[in-house]
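Supplementary notes for students who missed Thursday's class. We covered one full example, reproduced here. Read the sequence, then the structure, then the short commentary at the end.
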Amino acid sequence: MANAIEANFDGLVGPTHNYSGLSFGNVASQNNSTRPSNPKAAAKQGLFKMKALADMGFIQGVLAPHERPHMPTLKALGFYGSDAQMLAQAAKQAPKVLAAVSSASCMWTANAATVSPSADTYDQRVHFTPANLVNKFHRAIEHPTTGAILRATFADEHYFVHHDALPSVDHFGDEGAANHTRFCSAYGAAGVELFVYGMSAFDQRQPRPERYPARHTLEASQAIARRHGLDPKRCVFVQQNPAAIDAGVFHNDVIAVGNGNVHFYHEQAFIDNTQMRDALRAAWGQQDSRLHFIEVPQSAVSLENCVQSYLFNSQLLSQPNGDMVLVVPSECYENESVWQYLTDLQARNTPIKDIKVFDLKQSMSNGGGPACLRLRVALTSNELNAVNPATLMDDALFQLLNEWVDRHYRDRLVEADLADPLLLRESREALDELTQILQLGSLYDFQKA
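Structure (token representation):
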């Protein structure tokens, strides 16, 4: 068994961070549409969390934002002329299309990809599959750039394998790591990969939500397990509770989080919690250690309070001594029943020994908490050495990126501002400089023109 760690790669919030209410099924996104956003504050809140975790001894990386507004998509949809002319046409004829191609949703890198570490794969390399995010137009345009960023960050083909996204059709709707959790006794040991889906595309007999869409399919998860070369005996496929989806739990990471040998989830997370536990135990199969299931009852924390506070959209991090830290948004502290539960949890005999609270209100207002902002990648020491070092957080990068944000980001943005050609120019100047800071090469379409 190789020595390995878990690294977290957070999405850097982009210059066009705004609230346009694009994500049907995401309660926070819908409730906060039309409010002004603060891109500068959003980026700095994310950077502060990254640096704090790096200071705690965790490996922390940065993933670049995407070019927004995405002019190639506007051109493909029939708008023409100069950039300024296309923006004006879109603002007049299809303002929600303009909002969609301006969305900074790539900041939530839990949706960037599904990652399987080398300890689990047939060729003992780390496998990445960018999520097609086909259920939402503003996210479905992300995967080509996401794949390019991942390739520039994890470039060494000796250690890393990059797949294309699954076919962009509803039958293979893939929401990435937001519906995927890995359990292991150690990061370098073979693990159990839990895939959570909202519905089966081909089996109409399975229950489905009635109000909001089930974005992720069983068929997508099965395809990723095959292409990553995972051991079928160590893969578990579990259906999300349709009632939870209808309550606003659009991804599994809004109602469950796991790490190591701990699964922390709500009573109403899955369609059959007993089946989930039995399947994980069977796949785990280890006599020298056991899985810890921490089920939060509805009587302690209601489903509504889960969605409001994003209790489960937290990061569960392992310290060297085996104790775990739960990183939660400040909304958990502000919710009486949630904070009471967390206070009681710390006093219980579980691996979760510490709670860290972060202010991520800019992200939370659009429906993304700490877990949404990060992509987890388990890496051996050799694999970590092969990662693009310019993307790893330290004191110098933290200072560089804060100064970069100060130079390029606005502190107020409303939907009408998305038609401003100056915003496009500002964003391109920012991204061009960022690719030099992070040593990513020419990633974006405007850099290749």
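Commentary. The first helix runs from residue 27 to 31. The first strand starts at residue 4 and ends at 11. If anything here is unclear, bring it to office hours.
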